[in-house]
Amino acid sequence: MLSRVYTLWDNLRTGFWFVPTLMALGAIGLAVIALNLDAGLPEEKARQFWLHSGGPEDARNLLSTVFSSMVTMATLVISITMVVLTLAASQLGPRLVRNFMGDLRTQVVFGIFLMSIIYCLLILRTLNSELDISAVPHIAVTLGTAFALINLFALLFFIHILARSIISDTAIRRVERDLRDAISRLLPTEDHGQPRVERPTIDDVLPADFDERAASLWMSGEGYVQAIKYERLAEIACRYNAVIRLNFRAGHFVICKSHKADVYPGHLLGPDLATEIESAIMVGDERTPVQDLEFSMRHMVEIAVRALSPGINDPFTAMAVIDRLGAVLGDLMRRELQPEVFFDAAGVVRVIGRASSFRGFADVAFHQIRQAGATHPAVIIRMLSIIAQIAVNVRFSSQRVALLDHAAIIAETGRREASEASDMADIDRSYRAAQVALTQSERLKTPASAAP
């Protein structure tokens, strides 16, 4: 249920139409309220200095001017936005557009423009030259004038947002914030007051005759796995007294009849069970951060890779990404990763999935940046420095081994591509510092088999 709710909220949040549509509906309600207030407004109250006091022609000309100005301004803003986003997407990646559309401030500004246009259009319908001056909706016309002033300030605010949104540091922070939110939502923090509990591995819980007696359900869907409702799968497996094993996880692209779920014992697999299993697996046309932590991480990596391309050649942006990725990896090292084994209320294993490991996250964070930045000694050195800094967060031997392996590969790549002896010396120095930091990290109390 939580995955479904978050998926719906994510679609609404990143759907550019949602907030403007609500504000457009609000404009209709506001127009009705303003006209009703005018209907009950005493004549002496209509002479207030802040209220419009002209005749029907004056009111119609004023609102017509405001209406046409708002349409022109909204068209200009949309045109500028498309040009700026096209340039930013080519440098920082097309996923920046998704973040920009999901920005509540941007949606509110466009909603204000749409709200003003609809409001003025509705009020204009009530104005005609035959109206008596006492029947002119002074409050409604005054409110339309106020909308014009609000739109001017909204335009200035939007230009500020748009200018900052295409700055690489701002884009990186925004993606990192989305990634941190996903981490906080999906992964619990370490409880320092509780002893570390060794997690069961697949080999420990899988029945010895699983492969011989299990039947395979080949998935009929095609697209990206957006979410897997493990609780729902465990409930289904408990009801059928079965064990379900998946060979994919959220973020994987599944092709029809190429990915499967194994059901043990196999004789339980029938049309009803197959339908229920597939209904617990959400497949869509694009990756989402609902359960896929690598989604936002790959976006950050993409920004760094594009910055290191020959056409842009901006190693400073790449190093800013490396700093943020290091902070994220340090956070991941302090958390319990998603389990691979799920039990029912009685403690019986019901679902076996595929979970992300710390090595997998490190691979995503370092591999492509290392390959793209091989000819930039500064980038290589920064990656080694980040590994040395996050060594203090090591909790499991598997984490330390993964970081040592990456440090060795990064240093080897940097030495191979470096053309200056001083650059090679700096790389070696940074590599030794990373080795020392990882070696001197806190001694592990949990065996490697228990590591996430």
Low-confidence stretches: 444-451
Measured by DSSP, the beta-strand proportion falls in 5-15%
Q: Count of DSSP helices?
A: 17
Query: Gap between N and C termini, in Å?
Result: 25 Å
Structural description of this entry:
- By secondary structure, the chain is an alpha+beta fold.
- Among the domains are: 2-166, no CATH class; 301-335 and 357-450, no CATH class.
- It is built from 17 helices and 8 strands.
- α15 runs antiparallel to α16 (397-417).
- The radius of gyration is 29 Å and the shape is flat.
Write the layout of secondary structure elements.
Elements: H1 2-14, H2 18-39, H3 56-92, H4 95-101, H5 104-124, H6 138-165, H7 168-186, H8 202-205, H9 210-213, E1 215-218, E2 223-228, H10 230-240, E3 243-246, E4 253-254, E5 260-264, H11 271-279, E6 281-284, H12 294-307, H13 315-333, E7 341-343, E8 349-352, H14 358-372, H15 377-390, H16 397-417, H17 421-439
What's the gist of this structure?
With 452 residues, the protein is an alpha+beta fold. The chain contains 17 helices and 8 strands. Residues 444-451 have low confidence and may be disordered.
Summary keywords:
alpha+beta
